[in-house]
TrEMBL record:
The keyword Flavoprotein applies. It comes from Penicillium chrysogenum (Penicillium notatum). This is Putative GMC-type oxidoreductase. InterPro entries: FAD/NAD-bd_sf, GMC_OxRdtase, GMC_OxRdtase_N, GMC_OxRtase_C. Coiled coil: none annotated.
Amino acid sequence: MGRRRNPLHNPLHYATPQLRTGPPVTYASALRTLQSYDYEVIVGAGAAGCVLASKLSEDKNTSVLLLEAGGDNTKVLESKVPLMFPKLFHTEHDWDYYTVEQPGLAARRLYWPRGRLIGGSTSLNAMMYHHCSPSDFDEWASVHGCEGWSFNDLAPYLRRMEMFTPDSARPAIDTEHRGSSGCWQTGYSWLSEIIEDGFIPACQDAGIPRRADVNTTNVSYKDRILALRVMLMLRVFFSIASVQKEPIAIGVELQTNREGPRFQVHARREVILCGGTVNTPQILMLSGIASAEELKAHGIPVIQKNDAVGKNMKDHLCTTAILCKAKSGKTLDYLSNNIRALPYLVQWMLFGRGPLTSNIGEAAAFIRSSDYRFPESTTGPPNDHTSCPTGPDLELIGAPLAFIHHGEEAAIDGSSVFSLIPIHLRPQSSGLITLQSKSSFDAPIINPKYLSDEEDNDLKVLLTGLRVCLRIIRSPAFREFFEPVATNDDPSSYWWPYSSSHIEKISDDDLIRFSKEKAFTLYHPVGTARMGPSRDTSVVDLECKVHGVRSFRVIDASVFPEQISGHPTAPIGAMAYKLSDMIRDERKRSAPPTANL
């Protein structure tokens, strides 16, 4: 096998071909025969993996290998321009996953985009930088036993990793709570007139107070990665001897394609898995860590039994966008025309400004469903499952364009459209990830089990969100930006419920039908390798070490003990920053890596 010109595209530069015969690999034999890295082998270059690679490689005497199945994002324009992220969907930069049929959503299979490039899903999203509710993280510590991961524990890292650029037009930001010297550059995106003078005042009319600090971001990572390869991770392999109480993760197995040769890399210290909520449990299962039943069904030897792997998955579900017809020129739908968008692309490339800096969700309201009562509703009020008495369970995103089918479909008849999207932040429905086969080239089975909670509370919360949105669009301040449409009371019509003859009297049944036929993910699944003190109910301990296995950690959204009430990128980054400190502090107290022999 000849070497290619780009060393990052040739596994022989950092990996060793797998032997087809011979005894099982042990730590000692791996040290003698395999390409080794002094610190860690990190699998997955998403938010967590990039942070860890950057921070751990600050020690110039160590080497870190960061493995990513996708490619570099440096020249992927769509990952840099905020408004263009939907153009990456269904491309080589997207895992292009789909769920199984969801009985709670009209038996539909939902599209789940996941990033397959440097930055992971942070290179494939709306760049929202959100600390979320402090009580979410306090709940991790107080309810789920994850001491050391409360908001006070994470807040220093949220500030440390951020470089916030103030905006003179919005001086109300309290910079005391924002970082100024980190490597994640944050600031304000484009704010459309219909958001500033329509949506935000309408939210205030609906009783939602205005807050100045709306976090948006264009995330960038320092170029501190010592090695990178575009290939597929197959599994982690372990050293297992009769004298050992626990298996030791000693490396990873890789393959460039389904029929290609396999390669192995040795980690002298640790393997750290950062594959994300979908791919992390898949790799754990393929490596022999899962329930015995799941592994046996696919003929995978059990390395460590853990029934929590792939379970406890919770996602943020959107009912779908309420589409309102706006007056011509008041939204950004004109940018769907490539010719009209070209001058603004030049503006962005030269100055980093203009409407292409819009991240679609230019403003958001965070509310509690239990604060609202609607006489027209017959379903009954939802129960409170927030993380504290003031915590939100609904987010209402205002988008100054038609956000249909994940932003892939343009507005009808060239219309200007405002999209109002309610999102359930604290679902009680819990799903799972399982294997389709024992091949890493086959996508895992994704079953979120949307709207499956026994008390139907998730549906009640979403109904509340829809009704609050209907109240918002009736605000006089907002109506000034809208145009009338022909009355249509069919829930399947394009403009419904905006076109309804009696918006305030729409039935629960019609809103439920509307939601089930059109709901989609907001791309925030968590919890499939969750953190906790007990190996009976969690996958990793409070240091993100896999229960029952040595030298193996997981850090990404899969370790969240519970779903948070906001966007996860900033918390993932803060957790990775914190873990990098924990690892380096542990290294200072421990013996050299070869002592594990």
